[in-house]
Structures are given as C-alpha cells and as structure tokens.
Amino acid sequence: MYVTIFLGTIEQGLLWSIMVLGLYMTFRVLDYADLTVDGSFALGAAVAARLIFGGHDPWTATLLAIVAGAVAGMITGILHTQFRIAPLLSGILSMIALYSINLRIMGKANISLLRLDTVMSKITAIGVPEQWAVLVIGVLVAVLAVVILWLFLNTEMGFAMRATGDNAQMIRSLGVNTNRIKIIGLSLSNALVALSGALVAQYQSFADVGMGIGTIVVGLASVIIGEVLFGTKSIMRTLIAVVLGSLVYRIVVAVVLQLGLNPTDLRLFTALIVTVALASPILKGKVQSWVASGKGEKSA
C-alpha cells in the first residue's frame, strides 16, 4: 500500500512541477505576482478535457491547452503593460474572467474522462506498462520543460527577461522593450501552468472548474521549499530545485495526511509551509544572533 501511495505522490509531484516551473518564471524571473495561474491551470484542464470528451486526439488537446494558457498569460500582460493595471490586479482580473470562460468551455462544472483516451493511455499503447505510464510522462515533460527553460534563459531574450525582473528601469535605459518581455514571460509561464492542468486532469480522469483554486499557494510553497533545500547557485540548479521542491511538497503532504491531518485543513497547512519558508531567512538570522549573543555572554 505504501509503495502505491509513494508512487502516486511522485507522479503528482512531477505533473504539478510543470506548473511550479511556470510560476517560477513570473515569481522569481520576472518578479511579477501573477494570480492568473489559478485560472490558467483550470483552463488547461478544461480545454484538454472538453476536446478529449469530444473525441479529439489527447496530444492535440494537450497542445491546444498550452496555447490557451499562453493566450491567458498574454492578456494579463496586455492588461498590465498597455492599460497600466497593477500586476496583482491584472492577474486577479484574468483569474476571475477565466472562471466563467472555463465554465463556457466545459459546458458544466466538471467533465469525466473515465474510459476515454488520454496521453497516459497513448503511452501505454506503445508498450509502456500501465503502472509506469504517468511516471514516464511526468519525467519526460519535467525534463523537457527544465531543458527548454534553461536554454531560453541563456538566450539574449532570456537575459533580458532576467534583467527586467532584477531592474526594469536599468534594462529600459539600454533600449529593451520591457513591456514585450513581460508579455512573453507571462505567456510562457501560463502556457506551462495550463500544460500542467491538462496533464493533471488526464491523470485524475476529470476536470473541474474549481481545480485551480489555491494553485499559486501550492506553487509558491514548492518554489520556496526547492530553493531552501537545494540551492540556487545556477539557473539549471534552480530549475531542478524547483522540480524537486514540488516532489518534496507532495511527499510532505502525503505523510501529513497519513498521520491523520484532516484533508479540509490542507490549505491551512500549505499556507503555514509558505509562511515558514518565507520567514526562514529572518528566523535564521535571529537564531544566529541569539546563539552569538549567548556565546558572548559566556566568554565574558
């Protein structure tokens, strides 16, 4: 039983890590608090589920989910850059609009994908054992996403995007169009988030209009856990740390649930993890100061 639980936890961690990578692009690279992810995650699930339910190829459905996510991110970017709406508010507006859009796409609050073809069943059809299909998909997509982001962030546009997040005014003085950079970054981020939503929907065999609620909190927890535990000395190391952070978060959640935590308290537990992780540098400094003052008193 425990092996099955562990395998399922790793599978979920890998599929959700795509979303975490997307959130990393806005939260860390662009320094942009983008709440669109709560809507674009469900958007990816809605588009993929609706197309699969209608008999379309799951690979095509997943690809179109990525495109839909990119469009959602682009709209958020346009709201911010062209209409001067604050980053937080532009994301909230997109997130609210996407709730209704997702309902329109699905036609109802949820869609079941039981006994329908998904990317997992397609992988099984080429010879991969059924119990390993999700793991294979998760590993392949996570590795591909990490490599693509690493290559992108080391291009001229990638450097410009990182510089935009660090000091937008400075990079504008060098003639870089930061508005275009932000729109591209938000589109890329939400494309990854929508991809994650599409894969998660196919993994759990249903899409629900509310499945994106709290996505940003889960993503932040995973990003921060990964950075704290595995370090950020290079771009590649940071991207890998983000993926591992998603796995660690899922393992921690699974262990806590096994110990008896009420599932309804899971959001509270996640919020506490994020709070502790964000406060860890300050807490660490206070502890070091306390230890140093204690040693000083003893030596006196």
UniProtKB/TrEMBL annotation:
GO molecular function, one term: transmembrane transporter activity
Keywords noted in UniProt: Cell membrane, Membrane, Transmembrane, Transmembrane helix
Residue ranges that the Swiss-Prot or TrEMBL entry lists as coiled coil: none
One Pfam short name: BPD_transp_2
Main location class: membrane
Cellular localisation: Cell membrane
Origin: domain of life: Bacteria
Any one of the GO CC terms: plasma membrane
Membrane-spanning segments: 6-25, 59-79, 86-106, 132-153, 183-203, 209-230, 239-260, 266-283
Name recorded for this polypeptide: ABC transporter permease
Protein topology in the membrane: Multi-pass membrane protein
Keyword Membrane: yes
